[in-house]
Amino acid sequence: MASKETWSKIRYFEADNGVDKFGDPDAISDTLLLSLDDFRHFLQLPLYVTSGVRPESDGRNSYHTRGKGACAVDVVCPQYEGHAIDLIFAAMRFGFSGIGYYPDWHFKGIKCGGLHLDTRPLGMDADGTKNYGHSLWMGVKVKGKQTYIGLNYANIIRNVK
Fold it and tell me: How far, in Å, CA of 53 to CA of 69, rounded?
């Protein structure tokens, strides 16, 4: 849970600024909040939280809920002009272990794509490396329906224009 001390260290976000949708800003994970602020600093562009802490009724497996640690946010960066792959790789540098990219998201009427970012705990593979198998995905539209596919180079190139 984000402490007052953690919020006092945050440079680019406020608990209740009327723009970012943190849900319950006091429930959000300290680690997530600090990583998000560092990511925003790296980008040097506005980054908007479109969804933060959600009620348990929204999904018991969602990392957005308190029961799963409230360690997830959805964000958009409408002024970002680079390729999505660079934005995704940049997010990986800041400790986000769960990353979903949604190329069809809109913000204030502008199609800009967006990211789900979380700091979920990762399992380990037999060789001792972290297993990202279920924590990297894309949400794309196929015949008008949201479909989830792996977040990898080939899928990004095929699905991001």
Answer: 9
